[in-house]
Each structure stands twice: as C-alpha cells, then as structure tokens.
Amino acid sequence: MQPSELPGAIAAQTLLQLRQQAPLVHCLTNDVVQTITANMLLALGASPAMVLEPEEAAQFSAIADALLINIGTLCQQRAEAMLAAIAAARTADTPWVLDPVGVGALDYRSHFARRLLTLQPAAVRGNASEILALAGIVPAGRGVDSGDDSLQALPAARALAKDCGAVVAVTGAVDVITDGIRVWQVDDGHPLMTRVTGTGCALSAVVAACTALPGERLDNVAGACRLMARAGRLTAAWAAGPGSFSSGMLDELYRLCAEDVQ
Amino acid sequence: MQPSELPGAIAAQTLLQLRQQAPLVHCLTNDVVQTITANMLLALGASPAMVLEPEEAAQFSAIADALLINIGTLCQQRAEAMLAAIAAARTADTPWVLDPVGVGALDYRSHFARRLLTLQPAAVRGNASEILALAGIVPAGRGVDSGDDSLQALPAARALAKDCGAVVAVTGAVDVITDGIRVWQVDDGHPLMTRVTGTGCALSAVVAACTALPGERLDNVAGACRLMARAGRLTAAWAAGPGSFSSGMLDELYRLCAEDVQ
Amino acid sequence: MQPSELPGAIAAQTLLQLRQQAPLVHCLTNDVVQTITANMLLALGASPAMVLEPEEAAQFSAIADALLINIGTLCQQRAEAMLAAIAAARTADTPWVLDPVGVGALDYRSHFARRLLTLQPAAVRGNASEILALAGIVPAGRGVDSGDDSLQALPAARALAKDCGAVVAVTGAVDVITDGIRVWQVDDGHPLMTRVTGTGCALSAVVAACTALPGERLDNVAGACRLMARAGRLTAAWAAGPGSFSSGMLDELYRLCAEDVQ
C-alpha cells in the first residue's frame, strides 16, 4: 500500500494551533544545531529553552510543554541530563521526542537510544538509516546523512512505532510518518536542505512542539514535517545557496500562512 | 518620577570609545548564543574570546578588558569556570557583568546567581522577570522570555543596584538603566528582536564591553542598550523576517555611526 | 627567498577533488564555531560530523576521512576525547589537523598543543602569533587574533613543519603554506573575514578535508587556503557587512567553480 499525501488542511491546522499555543519546548540537543533549532522554533511562534544541568533539566521538563532529546553530540553528562529530563517529563505527562542522530554507526549512542525507546517517546524523527538501525536492521550510513530511502524504511518505521508506541517520522527526499497503522507522506522538500546543518534537527524540535498540540498526534507530527518542507521549498525557489537558504528559511517560516501549506 | 530618555550624544560617545578601545571581552556565556555574541561584538569593533577550562578562564580574565557571565546553560563545570574567572577578574580590576538568564523559574541557577551578586558585578542585564526574581520578588515567567514590563521592574532594579553596587539594565519593549539613583530610559527596540535567539544575551556582552570604557558607567551601559536597540530598529525597517533580521543586524552594527544614534 | 603565489590550477584541482570525494570530516572543534564549520564544509561538498564522547570519538575517527582538532574552547573532557580520536586516527591512517587557537597566551592549551605536536599531525593551521608560539617564540597576541604578520612567521613555520612532519599554514592578510622546504603563498583574502567569528576555524576544517585528498599534501592544503580566500573576496565584493558576508560566503563556496579560482 502506498502512503497517502498529507492533506494541506491538516498542516494548516497544525500551523494555526502552533501559533496560538506557542508551546515551550525544552531542547536537549546537539551542540552544532542549538542556534538554528532555537531560531526555527521562534520563527514559527514556539518558545525554545535549553536547560542542561540534570537537576534543572528535570525541573524544567515539568514546566515545559514538550521535550526534545537529540543525541548528536551525546556525552556522559548530557546523557545524565537527558534521563533526568525524560523521567520528569513522564511524571508530568509532558510529551518527549527522540532524534536518534547517527544511531547505527556508533555504539555508545546506539545503546543509549535503544534504552530511550523503552521510555515511551511520543515521537521519533530520523532519517532512513537511523530508523532502520533503531529497528535492528544493519545500517548503510557512515555518518549523519542517510544513504537509504524513506519509503524503504517504512516497514521498519511501522514496526518501531508499534513497539514503542510512538509516532515515527522518517525524513528525506520524501517523508513518511506513521503510528504503526496509518501512514502519511510529505513530498515537498528540497536538496538544498541537506547542505545546511541542522535542518533535520530543527525539524525534530518542531515535531516536539507539535506533540504538545491538541488533536491527533500522527496528524500533528506529519503537519510539522509539511510546514518545514514547505518553508524549505519556498526558500529554495529564490535562495542563491545554503547561506541565503538558511537565513531565508527563517523568514519563510515566520511568514508562513495557512494558504501556503494547503 | 519618569526616567529620562538617554541623550543620543551619550550613545554616540559610547560608540566612538568602543571602536577606539576595541575591548577584549571574555565571554562565559550559554551554548545557544555563543556565535551571535561573538559576531555582534566583532561587528561593533570589540574583540570576543571564550575560554572555558577553569585554570585558563582565570588566566584569561586577568588579560581581558571585561568579563561576561551568562548562566543560560549553566552546568557544574561551567559554574566552576565562572567562579574562577570572576575571582581573577576582581583581583585584576577587570569589570564583570551578569546576565541572569532564566533566574526565578529554576532553582539551581537562582541560587548560583544570588551567590554571584555578592561578588561585585559592574553591571547586571536582564529582562523584567529576571530582575524581579533577583530582587526577591516572585517571578511571572516560565522560561527565558519576560512576561513583565521593564518600567514595573524599576523599583526592583534600583534596590538591586544599591544592594550590589552594580548598574542594572532591565530590557524589553523599553529599557531602563539605573545605578540605584539616576535612571536612563531607552525606547528604541523592535519586536522582531524577540524572534531571534541571543539578541538579549549579545546585548549583555556589549554591556560588558562598555563597562571597560572610561567615563560614567551608567552612561556607558545605557549607551550599549541604545546602540543595540538602534541597530535593531534600523534592521527591522527592511528585514523580511527573523533570518534576514539576524544577519542584517550585524551589518547595521558594523555600519552604525554617531549620527545614527543621535 | 620570496614564496611563490599558488597557481590557480592547483586550487582548481583541489576543488574538483573535494567535490568528487566529499570527505567525511570528524570535527572536534570549539563551541563558538561548530555551526559555521559544519556549514562551510557542507557548502563545499564535504561532510562534517561532530562526535564528542571519547569512546565514540575514537570509533568515529577510524570511519572518517580526516579529523580536525581545534583547541579554542578546550576543557578536560574535550582534551580526553581529542587524544582518543587522534590515537584511533593514527591507527587507521586517518590524517588529522591541528588548529592551535590562542596558543601562546594561555598555558593550559599551550602545553596541550605541544603534546599534540608529537602525535604527527598532517597539517597545522594557525595565525602568525599561534605559529610563532608553537615554534617556541614569545607571542605578541593577547587573544585569538594575531598581531603578527604571516610572512614574518615563515621561518618559524618552516622549522615547525620540519620538526613535526606536518604541512604548516600561517594565515592572515596573506597566507603562507610550507612543508619545511617548499612554500606557497596565497594573497586573496579580505579584512571583513576578521569581523566574522569562525572563518579561520572553518578554514582549518577545510584544510582537514583536503588532507584526505590524493596528490601532494602541500598543494592540497594551499588549495584549501586559496578556495576560502577566493570565496571570501568574491563575497566581500558585494556584502554590506559581516552578517551578509557570513551568509554570503556560504553561497559563494557552494557556487565556487574551477574558473573562479584560476
């Protein structure tokens, strides 16, 4: 069965709710992408914060509307803060999202990510290699960029979603988003997004923001993918290269309206 | 008593001195804003450096012209480096500035910030919620963005300035700057500044640079607020959104001249 | 003997090989410049990754095509990861590059950098003050910006290259690149590059990428200097200030073609 393209009306609804609710997103993310992550959330109307000391990370997760866990530059201290934040988030019913950067190629983070999967993430967002690796399939990638195709990873994504009860988003040239049963597809991105560091990581932060919204979680996560892909395509239509793309995509996210995504 | 608007001639004087002296600013700041902080200092003609290992942080504070302490992503190792740097700065008569990001909402940093207040900062720069919290008034904010009004926080800012001997700047839609007796007001910012991460944190770094200048410290700190607010307003006049604003504000700071701020 | 200007054909060859091979560069770099480092590598067609936990850093260095060690925000944990990564790189014959940020002015990093020199770097890229300090000559700089002239540092660079078997690049208004015997010069940069944080650090990452290319290492390292200087000059021709320069240089690197550098 081919997945269906996400209806624009759903993404429009996600956008409106995001602007109205302005969710406060606690981001425990990698060192390379902190700025673009914060700026993309701000551009869309959400509110980012990064709180790293374990004691505070736990206190803040209980206040925040959503928690992002991105293991791109994982180290022991950060891992400790992540576990404290997730525990507090679960107690407070704050949804949390996993971005399993580089899982499969590297052992330390792979073990850590598998442990996190037992802690009931609301959503998981990765590229095809990462989702295949999380599902226990031998990875093809060397680094953080996926050599695999999102649609090929759909069976693994479905299995992962059923196993851990999360919405799983596999992103790439095409995005597929599944809760294990239903599947949405978003086909709207642009290759320039792969020449700017942090677009995938920032998408995971937007996914986290959208898990805090009311309504169907599958729809909201797919909506997040569509908003980012659409802003990327609008920017690529005029950007001269990755520098103007990176800056321009913030402008497009800021101006994005319901009509743009329908 | 209403505070008086800072005369443009004072801000122009601050700008000229900043360009002539090119102060070397040691920034112990949060992980999200390091790049924009360094770039805003460079654009204005100052010289930033970030030195993190406690032993080196102390050695460097004695060489630098000013020290910035921003507790946005405080952790134990960074706290240790901050204390070593402040101790060395005080011995060397290097002025140091506190940016109490998120104080009030989170206990670990609130305790740490109160400890820092006993170490004679030259200036404190925060939003209304943070200044109210430092002054012992129950905070209204959940995160790093202030729900309170700068002018409402003026009595707290005056009390704080008197208590710790620092110039206190409360920034927001309007900025108020006080040494506990005199008060300047700067009314020149733009809401787009709140949609870019790090503009407030970078302002604190510019405040630190300006505490190294000769003349009245109150005037120089208020001058720093005016320079940044003015560059922000000039940029907002043409920026298409937060991406072009962030990049454009660096250009405006670089081109800013005495006439612009008068 | 005056060094000869690098022939454009060599830089063009470096560019073509860089795009074809797309080397995967493991960057252990300073906190301030991680984003611009990743983005400049991506713009040129290389593939960056930052892996920090010592165990993983070692595992990843064996997979990567080159390793960058930048000591700008050195701390004990990072130093440990760097040593593990270098050891694994040497075992796997992965070339590694040293950027000795701030060496000379600060003791902790100076001792560490001298220790690293015994571990056979493929290349060292610094400003004149840093190269003079590494060669044991008393430094003139206070911070990370060099007060010395690249050509004055050439004898020190030659001696350093012979001592540690690395290609040494001294960059500034003019760049000189030597393997201890031959010397290339690149005279193509622009002062605006000194008003944007991380251009030198990102150059070191591009140098690392180019040590993974086939052919003469001296030529490839000098080629890296020329590519970055050329993109900088092309950008400075139209940039309005450091903000548009920073973003624009990514666009120019992305569009750079063999004709541009010849």
UniProtKB/TrEMBL annotation, chains A, B, C:
Reaction catalysis annotation: 5-(2-hydroxyethyl)-4-methylthiazole + ATP = 4-methyl-5-(2-phosphooxyethyl)-thiazole + ADP + H(+)
Class of the enzyme per the UniProt entry, highest EC level: transferase
Swiss-Prot/TrEMBL cofactor(s): Mg(2+)
GO molecular function: ATP binding; hydroxyethylthiazole kinase activity; magnesium ion binding
Any Pfam family: HK
Record keywords: ATP-binding, Kinase, Magnesium, Metal-binding, Nucleotide-binding, Thiamine biosynthesis, Transferase
GO BP annotations, alphabetical order: thiamine biosynthetic process; thiamine diphosphate biosynthetic process
Domain of life: Bacteria
Pathway as given in its UniProt record: Cofactor biosynthesis; thiamine diphosphate biosynthesis; 4-methyl-5-(2-phosphoethyl)-thiazole from 5-(2-hydroxyethyl)-4-methylthiazole: step 1/1
EC number in record: 2.7.1.50
Family: Belongs to the Thz kinase family.
Function: Catalyzes the phosphorylation of the hydroxyl group of 4-methyl-5-beta-hydroxyethylthiazole (THZ).
NCBIfam families given in the database record: PRK09355.1 (NF006830), thiM (TIGR00694)
Record protein name field: Hydroxyethylthiazole kinase
Organism listed in the record: Candidatus Sodalis pierantonii str. SOPE
